[in-house]
Design a protein that fits this description.
The protein has 298 residues and is an all-alpha fold. The chain has a domain of 81 residues: Serine Threonine Protein Phosphatase 5, Tetratricopeptide repeat, CATH 1.25.40. It is 77% helix and 0% strand. The relative contact order is 0.05.
């Protein structure tokens, strides 16, 4: 069957699938279903894309001893993308987890790392933080085996942050300790490394604050603020000051907290949400018995 020379048209593909099915050529029909699902995805017909991709995967799984077995991973990857676009994170991660297992059996550790990180990101965004932490740990371990310390560091601190969000403070500190050990092997010689080291400090401040280790949390927040001066990312700087101000409030130092949140507001980009920062400013002023000025922040 000749290759298409331009973008696939769904109607044409549907007709060709019907023809192949009538002739009993299920392998070619499965190839065409993959292309049809992609065409539907590209035109935002997501439910149609999912239905066709599911049909393709069912065929691939039932015929894994055939030459088409190599297409199982491609079919799962397509379905994961479709499910994510549909807002179905559980279904998307189910496909990605199957891909992780397949890549692991084949010893492709770097692919395991990339896929597990993707699953962690999807679950984190879906507020499934404990499950996200488990995927970030798998990704970090696989990156460690692949000698990718910067990417390992990214997933270690993401694991710690996800555990914090899951209210697993002690486990978050343990994950943070692992991230700090990786950080000791990472130099800030390139932008990616500097970003991950700064992100680690910001995450560490949040994790240690949640664990009640406020003095340590303050030190890490201050480090995040200092690190933010090495790259141009005003929103990160604002977040670092915001976390520092919250820690200072916990330490009953409202004047310093007010100064820190004012620094955050000074660098916060236009269009960024200001309400969380103004709330901290109001609390800091209230704590200094300045209710009139606190009201002015609204």
């Amino acid at each position: 069957m000749p290759e298409a020379t331009g973008p696939d048209e769904p109607l044409d593909l549907i007709e060709r699938i019907a023809d192949c099915t009538a002739r009993g050529d299920q392998a070619t029909a499965a190839d065409l279903r993959h292309r049809l699902a992609v065409a539907y995805l590209n035109t935002n017909r997501l439910l149609d894309a999912a239905e066709v991709a599911e049909e393709e995967l069912a065929y691939r799984l039932a015929n894994q001893d055939s030459p088409g077995a190599r297409h199982v991973m491609s079919a799962r990857g397509l379905l994961a993308t479709i499910y994510e676009r549909l807002g179905q994170p559980t279904e998307a991660v189910e496909q990605i987890d199957a891909l992780v297992d397949a890549a692991g059996r084949r010893g492709i550790r770097l692919l395991v790392a990339q896929l597990a990180q993707l699953a962690g990101e999807i679950l984190y965004d879906a507020n499934e933080h404990e499950e996200a932490a488990a995927r970030f740990r798998v990704a970090a371990d696989a990156y460690a085996e692949s000698d990718q310390p910067v990417r390992e560091l990214h997933n270690r601190w993401r694991q710690a942050d996800a555990l914090r969000r899951a209210a697993r403070a002690a486990e978050a500190v343990t994950a943070l300790d692992a991230a700090d050990r990786v950080a000791a092997r990472v130099t800030g010689d390139d932008p990616d490394a500097r970003w991950e080291l700064a992100s680690l400090d910001l995450s560490a401040a949040r994790v240690l604050r949640a664990a009640g280790r406020l003095a340590d949390a303050e030190q890490r927040a201050e480090r995040a603020v200092r690190a933010s001066t090495t790259f141009d990312h005003p929103e990160f700087t604002a977040q670092a000051y915001h976390v520092l101000s919250a820690i200072l409030l916990d330490l009953d130092r409202p004047a310093e907290a007010e100064a820190a949140i004012q620094q955050a507001l000074a660098v916060l980009p236009d269009g960024a949400a200001r309400e969380p920062y103004l709330e901290v400013l109001e609390i800091a002023r209230q704590a200094q018995s300045r209710p009139d000025q606190a009201e002015e922040t609204r």
